Amino acid sequence: ALQAGVGGSLEVEVEVAPDGRLREVRLLRSSGSALLDAEALDWIQRRWGPFDGRAESWRFRCPIRFSLAQP
Q: In angstroms, rounded to a whole number, what is the distance separating the alpha carbons of residues 48 and 44?
């Protein structure tokens, strides 16, 4: 995002299988940038590490913000 000079916010929903693996990632609210939306979904899929399994699948929503401000 920083290299492309694009910032924005989006929201995703993540569904986790009973064994802790990622089942699905869904874009709920777009940032308005296809580049940011795709990067957020890809990042979650690449970085997901399984949680300890639960007896059932579960979902959560996650807001993501891409900022042009440098730390």
A: 6
Cα 65 to Cα 19, 27, 32: the distances in Å are 29, 13, 12
* Number of residues that this document lists for the chain: 71
What is the model's pTM?
Answer: 0.78
Q: Alpha carbon of 40 to those of 16, 54, 55, 56, 65: distances in Å?
A: 17, 25, 28, 26, 9
58 burial via Cβ count (<10 Å: 0-12, 13-18, 19+): middle
Tokens describing residue 45: 């899929």
Q: Which parts of 1-71 are beta strand (E)?
A: 8-16, 22-29, 58-66
Which residues of the chain, if any, have pLDDT below 50? none
What's at 68, amino acid-wise? L
